[in-house]
Fold this sequence. Notes:
The protein contains 16 helices and 19 strands. It has helices spanning 3-13, 31-51, 55-58, 73-89, 100-107, 111-134, 146-159, 185-194, 211-226, 230-253, 266-271, 274-289, 297-304, 399-405, 410-413, 454-458, and strands at 21-26, 59-67, 92-97, 138-141, 172-173, 176-177, 263-265, 314-317, 321-326, 329-334, 345-352, 365-369, 378-380, 387-389, 396-398, 418-421, 424-428, 432-433, 445-452. A 6-stranded mixed β-sheet has the order 3-2-1-4-6-5, sandwiched between helices. The protein has a 4-stranded antiparallel β-sheet with strand order 7-10-9-8.
Amino acid sequence: xxxxxxxxxxxxxxxxxxxxxxxxxxxxxxxxxxxxxxxxxxxxxxxxxxxxxxxxxxxxxxxxxxxxxxxxxxxxxxxxxxxxxxxxxxxxxxxxxxxxxxxxxxxxxxxxxxxxxxxxxxxxxxxxxxxxxxxxxxxxxxxxxxxxxxxxxxxxxxxxxxxxxxxxxxxxxxxxxxxxxxxxxxxxxxxxxxxxxxxxxxxxxxxxxxxxxxxxxxxxxxxxxxxxxxxxxxxxxxxxxxxxxxxxxxxxxxxxxxxxxxxxxxxxxxxxxxxxxxxxxxxxxxxxxxxxxxxxxxxxxxxxxxxxxxxxxxxxxxxxxxxxxxxxxxxxxxxxxxxxxxxxxxxxxxxxxxxxxxxxxxxxxxxxxxxxxxxxxxxxxxxxxxxxxxxxxxxxxxxxxxxxxxxxxxxxxxxxxxxxxxxxxxxxxxxxxxxxxxxxxxxxxxxxxxxxxxxxxxx
Length: 459
């Protein structure tokens, strides 16, 4: 099986592309991306022949080049080369130009991070535009190869990644596909040489200013001296980690809380294996701050240890976040988040009691004995001195203790509306009615109270 056949087989195995799809190909002009684009055009011809259709109907390819404005004339030369290559291969082409060093400074990112962020913004923009225009699904093909996979695994290890970081790079993630992921750089260069296809060399790849370049130019050569099969062994570990990641993903997905992002059930967390528990915490953190970077093993462990603490215990996390144990769950949130309550208003009406009166339970409408009201009813939030009668014997409970017993989160207690008669609570809206104000055999006049939220009030 030649290199092209290996790549097309990998495309089919990972369900990357189908007849009638569209693909955005990220093309820098380097060997990897030139090989990717060339193979995609060959694959397009193969599909067109197989299905007896035009090339465009078989597979629409759009090449996208990004000029990062880092290497001056060299970068401009890359852009010109890619344009001529696309013309030769009969592939539609777009280019973008952005001052990445300036963007990195403004967003407090490294140039690598800023460049990656901007590239994928452009790729996604092109894919979304063409999906609307051509009414077909679009994938984004990037040219990561097996050498990139090895470098990523080592880089993640050095950064202190969890075990799942050893999966390195996935062949498919969302709409992103990596057809060359199991193809080595030597094979890529051989493929291009056999076809007489030239490519550009990025001079920054030869510098040791970047961490990945140090791994590529200094660390990996030493590992290969120790064992010529180092690359393959690292790749095998990545494949094993990927299979483990799939098992852990299934375990976590079975208990993750989709309805309440940022919350983890302690019961669910205790059911998970150690690695799955850590992954659930990481996913929950990422759902709040939008990233995993800089979330270390120590942060994850500190969140898991909250299981052993009492309600109210919290730990600080990066990106101005915190994790807090709130009764039977762990809540992860931003410190800057504000909880806004909507008091709304109450509407009342009075009428004589009738034994046929429907006093069925409704969440936002309650009926009480009018004669038991001591003063003017008030809609407000809880105060320290508030209490509520909890049974027919007239036993009272401080509202704060009631909230504790009902496991109401502390930051929510200050926004729950209550209907008060002085310091005595008649109704905790949405939760319970005081026993003392309930309608009974001696009731003569009934007061009906309906709570209206702010949005209902405006309607």
